[in-house]
Amino acid sequence: KGDNNIFRWVWWKLLIAETWSEAPVFGQGFGYDLSTQFEREYYAGISNEFSARSPHCFFITVFARMGLVGLALFLGIVASMIKSTLQAIRGSRLDVLGAWSAAWAMLAGASFGVVLEGPMGAVVFWILFGAATGLSSSDETEPDNTTAPRTP
Q: How far apart are CA 94 and CA 75, in angstroms?
């Protein structure tokens, strides 16, 4: 439905502009109502039954709540996901790739929804992230048994 796309685009644009002008470095904070300006602009006071409190994009929520600092930190996590996923692909580690694929699916859902903004999705994502990270790091900690031990 086209209205859903317009709904998101208007909210994202307003929230980014508001955060950029008022608190770009550290964001609006976790107590700030991210929907106030959107509700005023999009509904123009017509609807008082608006219940969404998140812009349906985790990256924009991170920026709005924690500013450039929080966004940079989260993008560092995404960069580590990219690096580890590519290593799993190059190493043909299907177990590791499966865990990363599941974490990526959750993150993709959070890019256009509220998946990571509540415990039902966030707990699953961080468990998958931790499991994939643990599986990825097992490559680095396993001893290299390709050479025979030297005997004196």
A: 25
Q: Is 58 left (phi over 0), alpha (psi -120 to 50) or beta?
A: alpha
Using alpha carbons, select from 69, 68, 56 the residue that is nearest to residue 117: 56
3-state secondary structure of 99: helix
Residue type, 70: G
Model confidence, pTM: 0.80
Query: Among the residues of the chain, which ranges form H helices?
Result: 2-22, 36-43, 58-90, 94-111, 119-141
Residue among 104, 133, 131 at smallest CA distance from 116 = 104
Given phi > 0 = left and psi -120 to 50 = alpha, else beta, which region is 150? beta
Q: How far is CA 55 from CA 34, 43, 72, 88, 110, in A?
A: 8, 15, 19, 33, 11
- pLDDT for 71-83, tens place per residue? 999 999 999 999 9
d(CA 12, CA 19): 11
The answer to whether residues 116 and 125 touch, using CB atoms and an 8 Å cutoff, is yes
**pLDDT greater than 70 at residue 103:** yes
